[in-house]
Backbone:
């Protein structure tokens, strides 16, 4: 049995998220089915995290153990041939037997895209959040720096989440504009459920004056979900990079 | 009756081209229906050109005469509210009574996108041509300069086209790479049926050695469609800009 690390891109609008569930077709299911079809093996597919329905991945990592003598290149081509077009494996490498895509993950980078054009862009349907009101990316970039560091992010966790330790470290958080596109880029050692979407939604609430400037430290300290802003919609969110120590 | 010039973006994968036809939903039909629904008027919609099924528009221009007192801003919002999401009007202005989007057009710019990544990108499905073999964009950029100028482009016109005058002027033709994306950008006073797709396909044939370098002048002079290369697929083509003298 060889253990492989794979990297996959997927258009989240075609799936009900990553994780296998009884109702709805997921990326994990698509991968498990593809491996089953090519190798005639019922494998466990370990993802680096979950992504919600509608959330995209420029780079999502998973590992699984397969009995095969194929080269990595041939494995990629064989799996892509049977995967849906909306998911494409672009990297495969053999790893240590005990490598696990989730437990060995040291950090991730997410990107959130806002189409800030007045009327929307048909090429960004389901690929960015269309928000037509003014966004001052320089203000938001300054405000976002308050997220950087090791904090208890309980205020930025979807209520109802069962996670106990809500302390996470954010490494960087930048907001830049490129024409009509406003891009939020955040990296950290881990993220709570909906954390990036709540951070972005809170920044949008600051932009429209619903939350005053210079309040993020106070909101973080409150540890209260209701002090933070709205949850930005799923279609703007991309898992962009996954970090492993030895990779 | 006021005459309006509109600019619209559309995702060509959602339509059977621009022009109204008995079988298949087209952008022109969508616009005609939207105007009918908002203004209760049966209008003639004059497009700047036709685009084939699958071909996209970052900027396509059309004009039509509407009896209304609405402002341009309100007209845009009203029409976008009833147009399919895959087509978005982003500009409207009142013009001279006799302005005609096709007859007054002085030139156009097209962009052709090739996703030159090894395995393809799910976010570019139907939005770029996935071609995984090597493309030397510097060579193609040099070769493409042979298209510039006023030539009889009969060799680059789909066979069966009924057009009589096949002389056109190409103003510029550039090929650039941005990571895995290779972009062909061509402007001219007009283009024959499939002309851009045949020019791009011929450049691809040069890249893979099927047509030798430094042969485009000879191929143009031959005026023979069979001397030129393949027709590149529709999904990579975007009408990008439309030029009018007084706009």
Residues:
């Amino acid at each position: 049995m060889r253990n492989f690390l794979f990297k996959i891109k997927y258009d989240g609008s075609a799936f009900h998220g990553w994780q296998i569930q009884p109702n709805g077709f997921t990326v994990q299911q698509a991968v498990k089915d593809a491996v089953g079809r090519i190798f005639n093996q019922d494998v466990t597919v370990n993802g680096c995290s979950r992504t919600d329905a509608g959330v995209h991945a420029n780079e999502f990592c998973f590992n699984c153990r397969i009995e095969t003598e194929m080269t990595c290149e041939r494995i990629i081509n064989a799996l892509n041939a049977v995967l849906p077009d909306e998911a494409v494996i672009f990297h495969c490498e053999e790893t240590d037997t005990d490598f696990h895509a989730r437990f060995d993950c040291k950090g991730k980078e997410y990107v959130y895209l806002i189409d800030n054009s007045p009327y929307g862009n048909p090429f960004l349907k389901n690929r960015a959040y269309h928000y037509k009101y003014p966004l001052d990316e320089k203000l938001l970039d300054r405000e976002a720096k308050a997220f950087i560091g090791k904090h208890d992010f309980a205020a930025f966790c979807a209520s109802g989440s069962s996670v106990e330790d809500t302390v996470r470290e954010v490494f960087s958080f930048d907001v830049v504009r490129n024409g009509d596109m406003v891009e939020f880029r955040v990296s950290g050692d881990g993220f709570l459920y909906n954390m990036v979407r709540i951070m972005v939604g809170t920044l949008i609430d600051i932009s429209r004056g619903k939350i005053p400037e210079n309040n993020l430290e106070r909101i973080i300290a409150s540890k209260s979900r209701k002090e933070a802003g709205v949850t930005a919609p799923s279609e703007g969110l991309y898992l962009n990079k996954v970090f492993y120590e030895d990779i």
In short: Residues 40 and 201 of chain B are 44 Å apart (CA to CA). The first strand of chain B starts at residue 2 and ends at 10. Chain B touches chain A at residues 9-11, 14, 56, 76-77, 80, 85-90, 117-123, 125, 127 (CB under 8 Å).
